[in-house]
From TrEMBL:
It comes from the Bacteria. One of its GO terms (molecular function) is monoacylglycerol lipase activity. This is AB hydrolase-1 domain-containing protein. GO terms for biological process: acylglycerol catabolic process. GO terms for cellular component: membrane. The lineage of its organism: Bacteria, Pseudomonadati, Bdellovibrionota, Oligoflexia, Silvanigrellales.
Amino acid sequence: MENLQFSSFPSSLFEQPLHQGEGVQFLDFEGAQIAFDFQSAKAPCEKLLVLVNGYQRNRMDFRAFRKKIEKLSPQTATLALDNRYCGQTTVSSSNPLTVIRMARDVSALAAFYCKILNLKDFSLLGISMGGMIAQTLAAGNENVENLFLVSTTAGGLGRTWPVAVKDPSSLEYKNHYENLDSTKKHMERYFGARFLKSSTLLFDMMCKTLVKSNTGEMNESAKTQFLASSTFDGVENIAKIKAKTLIVSGDEDQIIPLENAHYLSNNIAHSSLVVYPEVGHLILIEEPEKFANDICEFLK
């Protein structure tokens, strides 16, 4: 496993002109310009929470969530990034994308900001593919204090695939956003029935946005991330996680079914599991208030 400890980074990493102010910044790191933004704590800073999003989702999804964290846990600073092949992050390296590669990016950012905030440890929250990145980093970095694994899987033999996936070995990337009908059919699988019934206008708006953003460049990036996440196998690493861990899943998740959360909970020491009833894969959208409250309560 690639070295993910803070001690593995060269001193030049800490000489980059990054700051604690608002706005997008870029970490120049190992063949990529990693886009991120930092949000200072409103009270004297005691914690850093690093937010890692899922497949083809960027850091902007966390905007409303971070405002809630700011109110509920004012001593917590937050940092959110765009993974490689997503958002404003650009990649110059020709090396294959892996979950471990993305975990090292997150570790580098955490190392930089822990140093300037004078913190020894940090907390880490990953959603879906971001959860794969987060558990990988927590297994290989002793500085992770609190770990949040949301709507995610250990991969490999610990992965329960959706019922529709008959043969995982034959999975191939498919563009689901060619038109509005195909987009709606695909996106319905991401939400619980309650949300789809009560939030039809929001669902339609999200689907139209996805169709509008469907470009050749986006599809190439999506394919790259798809290959990295669909082949992920972290089963041998999760026993190494020492961080206090909260696992969160919706009981109607059709993308990464609830069985995956139970597997993580059963195999990670110092872990607890929260299951949201009548909720699908996108907890950040379906249960924003409860989710923020649960995260902040766990951070105490």
